Amino acid sequence: MAGKRRNPWLIVPIMVMGTIGLFLLFFKPTSYQVITLSHQESGEIFLQQETEDQDRLTFNWIHSFEHIPWIEEYTVEDDNTFVLHTIRVAGFGAGIPENKGKVSFEEGMVVMQDINETFEGFEWINSQSALVSILLNDMVLIRGSQLPHHQKLELKLQGKRAICPRFPSKQQRHT
Questions:
Q1: Strands in 22-171 per DSSP E
Q2: What is the per-residue pLDDT for 96?
Q3: SS3 at position 33
Q4: pTM for this structure?
Q5: Of 150, 119, 154, 157, which is closest to residue 136 (Cα–Cα)?
């Protein structure tokens, strides 16, 4: 009795499916977000930083008229927005809100919490004496003194998609 002859075309779909399975196992498609700090008019990029959903972004300011600390705390959201949760300020004065969220006093600071206001990004005219620093998860991304004085800046969040890296590295770039 002669041996059964197998169809050689059956092996091709099995090999293709196996290759795709191995690719997805080792090279899982991953998405991440990038904070970009740039000049509003020229588009010059001063900072790009990979970030993730729920990372904490903090702006540390010195109020330009009152000369008191002003701290704003946001979270990065997966829809490429920022949500303002807390403002800490050493007092009230010109332009300082007095009725945002729940107000308390802690360690000499007026603290406004549970604000939950959404922002698509931030645009401002930089002052090297007013912007102290921008932090991500309590690590300094950039200091106001590293940015051009009296220039129009913007900070935005963009979603990016990495096709292959299974474990994308957090990268920071200053230009």
A1: 30-39, 45-51, 56-62, 69-76, 82-89, 102-106, 109-113, 117-119, 121-125, 131-136, 139-143, 152-162
A2: 73
A3: strand
A4: 0.75
A5: 157
